[in-house]
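Severity: low
Component: inverse-folding endpoint
Summary: output formatting inconsistent between runs
Steps to reproduce: submit the following structure tokens with default settings.
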């Protein structure tokens, strides 16, 4: 919890600076690639969390992996290393993306389905998201066969569960209560 608040503070600070320098979109692209890389790579996560690896080694490794970063993005890495907070880099990048999208009136809708979404279903989901939130959204489809059918829609703090597995669980609870 404390790390999330800390990551949010760093992300807000970087976003404010990026807006002042009119480079928020470029920094957003940097933060997106950092967040995706940290989430996808266990080795990168372990390197960031390691107390054994010196800060200078972490910095040089990060700058080698993320070549061509905007000076605000590389400045964030410097600041996190200086403050001994480099372990939350991925979370800061993710929070920056969320704050940037929010400031642009965009949001990410995560749709979990048993099979991949078709283009026709994407259009329907986007319409439902627009109806619920009055904002545009980018769709991220997560395939999870355990929900059996239907879908689970997550937009920020809102969750709409229309999965078959959820309906079956409700029926099971009703039968066990009686």
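Observed output (run 2 of 3):
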């Amino acid at each position: 919890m404390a790390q999330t608040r800390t990551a949010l503070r760093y992300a807000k600070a970087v976003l404010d600076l990026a807006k002042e320098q009119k480079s928020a979109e470029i920094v957003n692209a940097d933060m997106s690639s950092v967040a995706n890389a940290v989430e996808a790579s266990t080795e990168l996560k372990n390197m960031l969390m390691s107390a054994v690896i010196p800060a200078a080694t972490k910095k040089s490794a990060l700058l080698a992996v993320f070549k061509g970063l905007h000076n605000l993005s590389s400045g964030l890495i410097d600041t996190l290393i200086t403050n001994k907070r480099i372990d939350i880099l991925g979370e800061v990048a993710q929070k920056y993306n969320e704050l940037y999208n929010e400031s642009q009136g965009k949001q990410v809708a995560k749709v979990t389905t048993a099979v991949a979404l078709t283009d026709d279903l994407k259009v329907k989901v986007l319409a439902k998201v627009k109806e619920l939130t009055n904002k545009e959204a980018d769709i991220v489809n997560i395939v999870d066969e355990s929900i059996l059918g239907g879908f689970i829609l997550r937009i920020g703090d809102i969750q709409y569960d229309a999965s078959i597995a959820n309906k079956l669980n409700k029926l099971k609870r009703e039968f066990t209560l009686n």
